[in-house]
Write a structure and sequence with these properties.
two-stranded antiparallel ribbon, 2 strands, about 675 residues, about 65% helix, mainly alpha, 31 helices
């Protein structure tokens, strides 16, 4: 019995405190009414009373004293409860549970906070911060798991396109804004577990407590019992997918609000959902959902009209295993942003990091596997936006990529990510192979697809965050997602350099005989060899299993690479006469006529840059500084080589040559 006394005392104190919440909230309006029965009773005895009588004043002071004491007791009781719950939240198990269970805990804690604030009339600032810290710790562990999972998928990626019917099964409603949180609301009273934002909570406590106090919670009953009963009903009435978590993770926009299948409704109505039938349904499950730990079924959703508007056929045909894994993770993060708004900015940063890892891996896989005609790696030719994006990625994801960058660079050097291709198609293999052309194009297309979906999700993601976080969203989409077209172009140019075997032609052109006394009718032999290489290049593209649009794009880049090779070779020529310059023009014209047979576009504009460089040989010495500044498309070494050649062949004074070079530099 002694053990029961404190419990009964606490219940009594809580009940009395609860009653005093409404009493104190209506103190001024209820004084006269509460005194009226006593006055009537005394009037019945023939006595006359007034509001200024000593008895009335004593009664009023007593009520005020009791009310204040109970109010202080409510705050003490609330502090005691929050301190004990805080101890439970400090346990390691609080941050290691499944998503499904953590969201349920978060919803219960949200209800607990709102009820407690209404009970004592004071904002639970410290406990809110405690809950925010717990959510932050859970995100850190959750994000770490997703990062390692994505790294594992990327390291085993074959870069083959998935069948369209496979990609169509999954939507990304959480990203583009058509989805709901991972778990649906428990019941109609779930509005009690509103967002725990500090900027809203103060107004909620001040206005709600003064107007209604704790009385609405008394009228509605125990909110936790309502959720338990509702969850019990959902467990019996759910579809074979057993829970909204797995449905929404698969992107089923039609079932994200806890809608049950027709079969489930029928069984429930007819009372046929017996234990044996439930066991049979579990045996028919396709997998166990890792979040809810419930048996789940794979079902192809009926795609809504909004879904078809968001995605095109190209979006379904460009998916690879890694892009699908990435988008599913980001979609899950976006849904958690809706549910855990107290830390939703952290989930957005997680989306950014996942995409940064994907961006970096694609670049390392397809953007570093070549040496250009000047002997430098392709990173020397990166434009400013792509360099800035890569620098930002290495800073933001240093802890994630530093452990794998070495292994990635070593593995990608031999195209280990294309095991479906024959062994002789690895990078660095003999000429005449496709060099994983299909896989390289799939990598470029899939990163472009992810960028398109992110652009469509920008408005939705921005709406989930506070206005103070606008800069984070802007920076991500401008500097990283905006650099994807540059990455795609760089991948295609790198592919063209690998497939077009003309790196050795720089020395051939530079070592040709250009110091002629008279011009003949024959062009140099390297021209025919270049045309032969370009013909083989076109054949590789035609038999590489890629789309016609990509073939034309790679042919276009091939023409530009031919022009770069010619300029680099001509800039290294040491001795050349006027007749030699005329032979350069003849070689160029023969090359243009030959290349025109391989492509449908006009070749001459693509090689105009070579003709301009050849004609610069005839400029007066006073024009070279202005010409160099007017043509930034040529590198500094190429311009210096041209000036040294002209100065040597035209007999410039050493002082004049040095002055021109100094002005150019």
């Amino acid at each position: 019995m002694k053990d029961g006394i404190p419990g009964s005392s606490s219940i009594k104190e809580s009940t009395t405190a609860t009653s005093s919440a409404d009493t104190s909230g209506r103190m001024d309006s209820g004084n006269v009414e509460s005194d009226k029965p006593v006055s009537d009773g005394r009037n019945g005895d023939g006595a006359t009373s007034s509001s200024g009588s000593p008895w009335y004043q004593l009664r009023k002071e007593a009520i005020t004293f009791v009310s204040q004491t109970l109010q202080r007791g409510r705050k003490n009781l609330w502090q005691l409860m929050t301190s004990r719950v805080s101890v439970l939240l400090s346990a390691s198990a609080a941050a290691s549970t499944s998503i499904h269970q953590f969201l349920k805990n978060y919803e219960d804690l949200s209800t607990f906070i709102l009820a407690g604030e209404a009970f004592c009339g004071v904002e639970a600032f410290e406990f809110r911060q405690k809950l925010k810290g717990v959510c932050g710790n859970y995100f850190a562990a959750f994000h770490r798991q997703n990062v390692f999972a994505l790294k594992m998928v990327l390291e085993r990626e074959t870069w083959l396109r998935l069948p369209p019917e496979t990609a169509q099964i999954i939507s990304f409603a959480g990203l583009v804004g058509d989805g709901a949180p991972l778990i649906a609301a428990s019941d109609g009273r779930s509005s009690n577990s509103r967002v725990l934002r500090a900027d809203k909570s103060a107004n909620k406590v001040d206005t709600g407590a003064k107007k209604s106090g704790f009385s609405p919670w008394l009228r509605n009953g125990n909110p936790f019992l309502l959720k338990v009963s509702s969850s019990h009903k959902e467990a019996h009435n759910s579809s074979p997918l057993n829970g909204t978590t797995s449905v929404e993770y698969e992107g089923n926009a039609d079932n994200i609000h806890g809608d049950v299948s027709p079969r489930g409704d029928e069984n429930h109505i007819n009372g046929a959902n017996s234990i044996s039938e439930e066991e049979n349904e579990d045996l028919l499950a396709d997998f166990i959902d890792e979040d809810s730990q419930l048996p789940s079924r794979i079902s192809k959703p009926n795609l809504s009209r909004n879904y078809s508007l968001h995605f095109s056929n190209d979006d379904f045909t460009a998916q690879t295993g890694s892009s699908l894994c990435l988008l599913r993770s980001m979609d899950k993060y976006a849904r958690l942003m809706q549910k855990l708004e107290i830390v939703n900015v952290e989930f957005f940063k997680g989306i950014c990091q996942l995409f940064e890892m994907f961006f970096y891996f694609v670049f390392e896989t397809f953007g570093l596997q070549n040496m250009n005609s000047s002997g430098k790696t392709s990173t020397d030719s990166l434009n400013y936006r792509l360099k800035t994006a890569l620098s930002q990625v290495t800073q933001d994801c240093e802890e994630w990529i530093k452990t794998s960058s070495g292994s990635l660079s070593s593995s990608t050097a031999h195209a280990d990510l294309t095991p479906t291709a024959p062994q002789n198609t690895n990078f660095g293999s003999p000429p005449g192979t496709s060099f994983g052309l299909k896989e390289r194009c799939a990598g470029a297309d899939t990163v472009a697809l992810v960028a398109r979906i992110l652009h469509r999700s920008r408005t939705n993601l921005q709406s989930l965050l506070l206005k103070s976080n606008t800069a984070i969203v802007e920076d991500f989409f401008v500097h990283l997602v905006g650099a994807v077209p540059d990455l795609v172009e760089h991948i295609h140019r790198t592919t063209a350099r690998i497939l077009l075997h003309i790196n050795g032609y720089v020395d051939r052109i530079a070592n040709a005989k250009w110091e002629l006394k008279e011009l003949g009718m024959e062009h140099n032999g390297y021209v025919d060899l270049l045309l032969g290489e370009f013909k083989h290049y076109k054949t590789r593209l035609a038999h590489g299993g890629i789309q016609k649009e990509v073939q034309d794009l790679l042919l276009d880049y091939g023409l530009e690479i031919v022009a770069e090779t010619l300029i680099e070779g001509l800039s290294r020529v040491k001795r050349c006469t006027d007749e030699g310059r005329a032979l350069m023009s003849l070689d160029l014209q023969v090359l243009i006529n030959g290349l025109q047979h391989f492509v449908s576009i006009n070749v001459k504009p693509k090689l105009q840059i070579v003709e301009t460089f050849i004609k610069a040989y005839y400029l007066p010495e006073t024009e070279y500084v202005h010409w160099a500044r007017a043509h930034p498309e040529y590198s500094k070494n190429q311009i210096v080589g041209l000036i040294n050649l002209v100065a040597s062949m035209k007999g410039w004074k050493r002082k004049t040559r040095l002055e021109v070079l100094e002005k150019i530099e």
